[in-house]
Amino acid sequence: MSAVLATLNLGIESTGPWTDVGRSGIDKRPVAHRVTARTWGLEGDLIANPKVHGGPNKAVYAFAREDAVFWERELAREIRPGNFGENFSTLGLDITGAEVGEQWAVGDAVFEVIRARKPCRVFAGFWDVPDLIKRFIAHGAPGAYLRVLKEGDVGAGDRIEVIRRPGHGVTIGLMLKALTTERHLLPRFLDAPEMLPKHHEKARQWLAAQQPTESATR
Question: Residue 139: CA atoms inside 13 Å, Cβ hemisphere, count?
């Protein structure tokens, strides 16, 4: 089956004690019209806290509907497209196995897989599942943030074509593990030149911390 953008979702304003700035755009809803993808995000998407969401390195968040099925079973409730806070709900695409630097052509635009999503308390609060962060990390299918390499219009039903796969094996799934529960994987980040500099620096810091101190070697 060809990969497809099942729905394109834009944020609406939500409020609650779990929000960081008094409101949140985590509640995203499918739209029928086509939307222009810009380097900073999708036109019409609500970004309530630009310090941690949106911008060139978190322009679009993609999550596979196949992975949503797990949570529907786990929580025994329906999880609609956009409920993960995702802009792109995909079908037929292994996002967890996507490599950092992988490029997707969707509609008139081109996107680059750049980082795994780390769940936050806003996500847990929106779902009203207090231990969601721990469970989400343990399941290991976080979805991916995308950069916009070529601006253009996208919409539900567009085919998703993987037009570049770097081949270094540093996947979204591996990245989540390295940042959370398996930090010994951090040096693998250095195999991915497309990764953000701050993640390369995390890898170097981890490697430096493993070096024996001068006093310990005497």
Answer: 20
Q: Give how many domains the chain has, as a whole number.
A: 1
User: In this structure, what token pair is assigned to residue 105?
Assistant: 């052509």
Tokens of 144: 């991916």
Q: How far apart are CA 87 and CA 82, in angstroms?
A: 6
Query: What is residue 203's three-state secondary structure?
Result: helix
**182 domain residue, yes or no:** no
> What residues make up the domain containing 66?
4-168
Q: Is residue 204 part of a domain?
A: no
- Residue 190 resides in a domain: no
**49 to each of 13, 15, 18, 164, 198, how far by Cα in Å?**
11, 13, 13, 31, 20
Residue 84: CATH number of its domain: 2.40.33.20
Q: Give the angle 86-88-89 at the CA atoms, nearest 5°.
A: 85
The string of pLDDT tens digits covering residues 22-32 is: 888 999 999 99
Global pTM value:
0.94
pLDDT of 191 over the 90 cut? yes
- Identify whether 173 is part of a domain: no
Q: How far apart are CA 110 and CA 108, in angstroms?
A: 7
What would the two tokens of residue 89 be?
A: 């709900």
What tens digit of pLDDT does each residue of 134-154 get?
999 999 999 999 999 999 999
